[in-house]
Amino acid sequence: MSGFIRYAAFPLCLYAAQGGIQAARAAEGFEPRYNLAGSLGGEIFAPPDQAGWVFGTAATHVRVDRVTGGDGETLTQPIAGGTVALPAGLPAAMAPSFGANVATIPAHGSLDRLDLALAYFSRDVYAGGRLLFIADLPLARKKQTILPHAKTPLLEWSPQAPATLSGAVQAGFHEQYQGALAAQGSAMTGEVRGIGDVELAAAWQYIGEKWRVLGGASLVLPTGKYDTGPAPDIGTGTFKTLRPGVQVGYLPTPKVALAAKVSLGLNTRNRDNDLRSGNWAGLELAAGYMTPVGVVGVHAVRVQQYQDDDNNPFGPSRFRSTNAGAFFTTKVPGLDAALTIQSISTRSSRYAKAGTMTQVRLIKGF
């Protein structure tokens, strides 16, 4: 889901107008480097507990319905006012001006992502648990459509300007004003595919009769293609994210499992645009019930920045997203692998993408 919108601003050149919308970039493309589809499923009953190699893969489909601003509604961006230069031969004092405006930025799209993960569990036991090392390679295809719109402001004229001039100039101004908005939306609309940002992780896992604990940290590297242009990118930016976290599961009965996961996202500065996305915290909760055919359950994800963005034209722009959904996990006959199907949707958000995420996840030990 990385980088769905990176520019939400439109350079405007209308009859040599001074002003317009300043170039603005949203930190991390209106999403953090975190799996908002949810990582807690039926595996909370029986996480992999074996020495050696484990392979995991996850296919995720994301449908983005909109990107929200600070009020939770569709994202908007101010457009600065300016002046319109008149044709040669007319006094500059007659040049009309136009006031500031606000553009609404409807956006929608989709992301199809395939994660290929390889994990190794230590053969030795440390403090009752095993060490775990993971490498995750994401492959993704992203589509996005951006349709900015705003009413054309009326030109304000000097009293010395002839009335016959205003109508013709206003018509031309409207055409170029709307044309500039449409052109910028077209530049931000498109499709891209490729390798995303690789993730490396190390952790310690303990599995007891009733308690399961997983603690460690992951490092997200900027391996996905990224540049400063308005077109969509697979990568979220040329910066690193360190993500420490702790996951705890508890089985009050053999048929009921509860789990919670707490994570932090610590970002470096994007070296391409000098923007630093504020650090964030994530909380994930899940509850599952064991049935004869597998585990059914519900889960929720909340991720929120606790630190302002730095050098972001949107201002502090603190990301916030709350999502909830359900999951089902079962064993694949003959394969001895755990299969999880889950769906989750956005309940509320600020400076974030809002939509629905569906994921199919398979974990197999060797």
UniProtKB/TrEMBL annotation:
InterPro entries: FApF (IPR025737). Pfam families: Phenol_MetA_deg (PF13557). This is Transporter. It comes from Telluria aromaticivorans. The lineage of its organism: Bacteria, Pseudomonadati, Pseudomonadota, Betaproteobacteria, Burkholderiales.
